[in-house]
Amino acid sequence: MSEWAVKCSGVTKTYKTGGQSTYALRGIDVAVRPGELMMLVGPSGCGKTTLISVIAGILDRDEGECTIFGEDFKAMRPGQRTKFRGLNIGFVFQQFNLLPTLTAAENVAVPLLINRENRGHAIRRAKEMLERVGLGEKVNSLPSRLSGGQQQRVAIARALVHRPRLVVCDEPTSALDHVTGERVMDLLKDVALEDGRVLVVVTHDQRIFKYGDRIAHMDDGRVTHVDAPEPANETMGGI
Ligand SMILES: Nc1ncnc2c1ncn2[C@@H]1O[C@H](COP(=O)(O)OP(=O)(O)OP(=O)(O)O)[C@@H](O)[C@H]1O
Ligand SMILES: [Mg+2]
Prior knowledge:
The protein is α/β, with parallel strands linked by helices.
C-alpha cells in the first residue's frame, strides 16, 4: 500500500465560464497519511472547495497527479468511479446539499442505499448515526423543518454512516455553536480516523484547528506551507 492515503502533486484546475478563465488551483502539492486529520485553511476564494472536490473525484483536475489510497479517479471509467466514491468517500458539502423531499433519516441512509444495503437496515443505521450527532428527536423531520446547525449535523451523519476510508468536510462547524462544534469534531475523529482512515477538514474556525494533526495553508491556488496546530491552551487564549 502507498505510504500516503492522499497524494497530490502539481494539481491544477481552471474554471472556464463565458470566455473567462479562473485559475482556481495553480499547482497543488499536498499529501495526507493514513490515520491523519489534515486541516485545510486559507482565505475565501483560494481554492479549498475546488481542491477537496478534486481529491474526492467530484471534479476532474486539469494537470498533475492525485491518488487516494493509491487509486486515481482519472484512470477509472464513470461506473467504477461512482462505485469507488460510494464505498470509500464521505463528503460534507459547504451548503449541506440535503435532499429536500427526504427526511433526515432518509438523507443519512442515501450512501448505504447507493451501496445496495437493505433499506430497513440502512434506515436503522442512519437513525443511530443521527443519535450520535444529537438529532435522535429529528429523524423524521424534513430538512426545511431543521435549523442550519441541525441540517449541518445531518450532512455530517450522512458522510460518516457508510464508514468511508476518506471523509472530506467543507466547513463542518460553520453553523454550529462552540459546544456542538467540539462534539461534532470529537465524533468525526472517533468515527473517521479508526483503522488508518483519513479526514480532511476545510475550516475558517480557529477554535477547531487544535483537532488537526497538521494544517495545510492555502493561498491563491497553492499550498504555501504545512505545519502543526499550536497547543490547545494557546489557541484558546484569544477567545
Ligand atoms: N463553478 C465555478 N465556476 C467558475 N469559477 C469558480 C467555480 N467554483 C469556484 N470558482 C472560482 O474558483 C476560485 C476558488 O474557489 P473555491 O470555491 O475553491 O474557493 P474556497 O477557498 O472554497 O472559498 P470559500 O472559503 O469562500 O468557500 C474562486 O476564484 C472562485 O470564484
Ligand atoms: Mg469553499
